[in-house]
Amino acid sequence: MQPDQEIVDRWSRSAPFWEKHRDIIRQMFAPITDALVEDAQIGSGQTVLDVGTGSGEPALTLADLVGAKGKVNAIDPIPGMVEGARREADRLGLENVQFDVAFADHLPFTAGTFDAAVSRLGAMFFPAPVDAVREILRVLKPGRKLALAVWSFAERNPFHSVLSEVMDRHVQPPPLAPDALEAFRFAPPGKLLEVFSQAGVTAPSERLLEFKIQTDHPVEAYWLFRREMSEKIREKLKELPAQQQAAVDRDALKALAPYYTGSGMSFPGEVLIVSGIKPHPAKGE
Ligand SMILES: C[S@@+](CC[C@H](N)C(=O)[O-])C[C@H]1O[C@@H](n2cnc3c(N)ncnc32)[C@H](O)[C@@H]1O
User: Fold this and answer.
1) How far is the CA of 240 from the centre of ligand 1 (A)?
2) Whose CA is nearest to atom 15 of ligand 1?
3) Does the first or last residue of the chain, that is N or C, have fewer Cβ atoms within 10 Å of its Cβ?
4) pLDDT tens digits for 251-265?
């Protein structure tokens, strides 16, 4: 199976849950969107690209920000994700955002279209990240910025790690291939930065964003939400007999309890924001 097909299968199964939980996802990752807006220098009236938009973020938030004189184009390879994002844009009556099915390394736009480009938590799943960043550069205007957000290390993101530790205790995790297309692929500092350099980005830079992942859930509801959202948790639970599933539930609730504040869940979170500029053509080009 080609890596692209694996990704399509994996994210297609997740699409209904990402649509169902869209509002929580938007709330949880809003600080990442704010950082991308800042680093890609996005403002009113601009034409902006969102790569790997999933159920429509940050594209839908950006559509508000760029306003009626601006435009947001967003792509994702999963038809189910794109259809869900279009439904939300229609519901909100947004006319300045368009969602298309595409992979990051084959963007359906002409060269030099965009004032800025972003991707929130998508780059880890690009099978050929240098090609993808080159392709994003192609569709950016010279001198404009791209900014991609990727997870820092799993253990610094307990919203993920406390539950993956519980699952791993019950179901032996398969060994990970080097550079596997998984959430923490670009956690090592400098790794995505090197991709930017190889792709020809000018002035590539990286910063660590520390933020809080917050939801209004009580512990039990948060666990139910994560059971649906995470493909890994869903798949592993399917393998277990009912009695062991009940043991997982107990362990998960115990592991999550310290992150309940009394009014909701709050986890420390860390992502890397990697950004840079599309070079101007050399004289004579
Ligand atoms: C973790 S989700 C992030 C979704 C959204 N950006 C957000 O922050 O809510 C990762 C997304 O990357 C998309 N993706 C996977 N491979 C991709 C590729 N080669 N090109 C573009 N997007 C891809 C997936 O379909 C999925 O929707």
Assistant:
1) 28
2) 125
3) C
4) 999 999 999 999 999
